[in-house]
From TrEMBL:
Native source organism of the sequence: Lithospermum erythrorhizon
Keywords, sorted A to Z: Membrane, Receptor, Transmembrane
Keyword hit for Transmembrane: yes
Record protein name field: Transmembrane signal receptor
Classification via InterPro entries: DNA/RNA_pol_sf, RVT_2
Highest taxon in the source lineage: Eukaryota
PANTHER family xrefs: DNAK FAMILY PROTEIN, GAG-POL-RELATED RETROTRANSPOSON
Annotated Pfam families: RVT_2
UniProt-listed SUPFAM superfamilies: DNA/RNA polymerases
Domain Reverse transcriptase Ty1/copia-type: residue ranges: 2-139
Amino acid sequence: MEEVYMKTPEGIDAPPGTVCRLKKSLYGLKQASRQWFSNLNEVLLALEYVQSENDYSLYIKHTTTGIVIVVYVDDILLTGSDTTQILHPKQVLDVKLSIKDVGQLHFFLGFEIGHVDGVVTMSQCKFANELIEESGILQQSVSSKLPVTPLPLNTKLFPDEGALLDAPEYYRGILGKLNFLTNKRHVLSFAVQTLSQFMQHPRDSHLTTLTHLLHYVKSIVGQGIIVQESTKLFLAGYSDSDWVVCRTTRRSVTGYIITLGNSPISYKSKKQTTISRSSSEAEYRVMAQAGAKVTWLVRLLQDLGVSDLTP
């Protein structure tokens, strides 16, 4: 640990100007997170796990069945084909770091994980219900027929159309939570990207569209991502661009989705940072981004022992 000093706490009799040197990291220090990960890294490397060069939070132990450890701050996932081999690293981590074992994974970082007959489901049903209740749309009198698309058909939004909102905080807060919901709802990505352009000065026309999106979320509240067992893994990528969709900046929108088997594992909808002078140029920019993501995913899957991907 690097040298860190602190003022002497109250109640300690020490000469004026005396400081204390910390022997270990304390919660709240800016160095604490790095020190924690360094300590965890030493423990895992001592257990002969290999840290992935493509994702430093991923650790793999190449055994006959294989064990994978994923780290997110102080939340740790362990998975493998042999449950008995998973017990040893858990025991060592408990001795070294005093962990809490919660058993089979059912809830992680706000995501709900289900296990049914070789099928894993990942959703955000609880978060979506809380968002709908917080938004207040349940108290609104609307048609019994919920929308079937995230945005109304042929939607065109402009930054200066309609009256400014008196309380823009509501718009920003709800949209920020919808952005988190896109983690397991790729169908929301384009709509959230579109509405996020007006975060600074939202208007009533933008709020109306946001309300439409919330009602759509209500109609798909239980949906998520399904991952099924497969003897053959097929990695596929699809990309598209919406050329000059922004009337103000003349910038295009990037959109791509990458699937492994029949399950989406990476997707994105974002306004391009540079103006494309033609629709072809916009498409090439999207393909470059999607291709870079596919290249990284191939390397990551190879770290996990998946090398026979069908092109």
